[in-house]
Amino acid sequence: MADPIRDQLDAVYRRESRRVLATLIRLLGDFDLAEEALHDAFRAALEQWPGEGVPDQPRAWLVSAGRFKAIDSLRRRARFDASLTQIADRLYSDSGAGAALDEDVEDDRLRLIFTCCHPALSADAQVALTLREVCDLTTEEIARAFLIPAPTVAQRIVRAKAKIRQAGIPYQVPSRDELPQRIDNVLQVVYLVFNEGYAATSGESLTRHDLCSEAIRLGRLLVELLPDPETLGLLALMLLHESRRPARATADGDLVLLDEQDRGLWNRALIAEGLALVKRIHASRRFGAYSLQAAIAAVHAGAASAAATDWVRIVALYDLLLRADPSPVVELNRGAAVAMRDGPAAGLPLVEALLGRGELQDYPLAHSAHAELCRRLGRNDQARASYLRALELTRQAPQRRFIERRLRELASQPPR
Amino acid sequence: MKYACLIYDDEKLFDAMPKGEVDAILGEYFALSDELGQSGHLLGGEALMPVSSATVVRVRQGRTSTTDGPYAETKEQLGGFFLIEARDLDEAIRIAARIPSARLGSIEVRPVMEFER
Q1: Does B87 touch chain A if contact means CB atoms closer than 8 Å?
Q2: Does B47 have pLDDT greater than 80?
Q3: Would A303 be classed as within a structural domain?
Q4: In this model, does residue A199 exceed pLDDT 80?
Q5: Which of A99, A119, A146 represents a domain boundary (last residue)?
Q6: Which of A20, A140, A299, A323 would suit a FRET pair with A8, their CA atoms being 20 to 30 Å apart?
């Protein structure tokens, strides 16, 4: 039997629960207390809304219900712990705080993100806490996505909350001079979630779509709250990568490289959204690591084929990226782009010099890239050796199958 | 909240430093503690003599044993501490970042445990 109030309540939960939680954490000053209050508030709604109707401002109703439930629960517990009486009394007399509720709600969501992504927490804890508190994934869902045991995730979250409480990690948007560095940290957490979903480091499937969609959801939220070029850049980058997902794997789950993908399968809606963001970044004339990577992804998205890609532009963008955010992986990608622009013979020395420096010795994609260039140049023995090294380093099943296929192709070719 | 800023330095780095540079760093330390004292952030603090002057004391089964200095050969040694009052961790981090040794070694920021007695 359809239950319209229940459906409405579910919709309110999906739309508002993280906002209500964020505000309750600010009002109550404690994650666990706020989560409990959130549950109590929705339980009260389930009891009262069928009789009284859905209130005009469900979010304000839920915040206020949650706050009073928390005060009740503190007072009940205060019989055993006198210090809680003071907290309950303070919360009760703070009822004026409810008035400024609606204008603060977006700030509350930002506060929640900045607290969950505080650099004083370990990177693992930041990711787990963000997915739990901001995205409302369950501990089990997070555990499944990262292929780790649920108790490990639960422990990370418990420890992170304890550190927030004990170390006095504030629930606030950082001051203007600290903001750029702190935003970087938030973007890094979001990108980590996306990458784990997009290029899972281990496991059976190539992508874990749930993590990608959560990361994109976080990216959209950040763009809404803090529309600076790097935030736009990260969202654009994720959308443009995600647009290729349907073409990245065969029906059997085998990997398809960018130059062999059926571009007709790319998701045009995501590409349009990504390109519009890249345009906005262009207009701002400010470029950072994410916006430059988004610009590179935009060139690919606009090309009809690998051959028709503007590799001159891509190499130029990699040059800028190397200046903005130098790393051996960026150098490797630049080397691959040079090989596309000027031929494999031009790219190979760059990749070899990079491997010679040693930083990428354990990075499977560096050996795959080397193997690929050698293969195209007909240096089959070198190609085979590098593919074998890449295979040793790769834990992810589709990547392994891809390398094994290449090795079989090499074996069936007559030696040159 | 109260925080202890534990200051870790490489003592060898200081030993090898020309006297002028050491004096400049000490000058920075004095200026910072004066400023933090005036703003009410500083509750206390000391610099410690080198690790070579340390003695480790243990009591096991009622017997006191003493040994020369810390055993572990760590690169950085505890060289001093500030006890500060800060609104939250972010303010404590801002203050810790201004301690000269933050540039040379590292500062461990630890909240102080409060007891109700």
Answers
A1: yes
A2: yes
A3: no
A4: no
A5: A99
A6: A140
Domain segments of chain B: what residues?
A: 2-111
H-helix or E-strand containing B6? Answer: strand B2-9
Overall number of domains in chain A: 2
Structure tokens at A212: 């990608």
Of A118, A168, A174, the CB nearest to B1: A168
**pTM, to two decimals:** 0.81
The predicted model gives A172-181 an average pLDDT of: 86
Cβ neighbours of residue A276 closer than 8 Å, sequence gap 6 or more: none
B82-100 pLDDT, tens digit per residue, is: 999 999 999 999 999 999 9
DSSP secondary structure, A249-286, as one string? B-TT--B--GGGS-GGGS-HHHHHHHHHHHHHHHHHT-
Scanning every residue of chain A, which has its alpha carbon at the shortest distance from the alpha carbon of B111? Answer: A167
Within-domain flag for A205: no
The verdict on residue A71 lying in a domain is yes
CATH number of this structure's domain B2-111: 3.30.70.1060
Give the whole-number percent of chain A exceeding pLDDT 70.
Answer: 92
Three-state DSSP state, A396: strand
| Whole-complex ipTM | 0.85
Is the distance from CB of A49 to CB of A6 less than 8 angstroms? no
In chain A, % of residues over pLDDT 90: 65
User: Is residue A1 scored above 60 in pLDDT?
Assistant: no
Count of C-beta atoms within a 10 Å radius of residue A364: 21
Q: Residue A367: give the domain boundaries.
A: 354-416
pLDDT over 80 (residue A412): yes
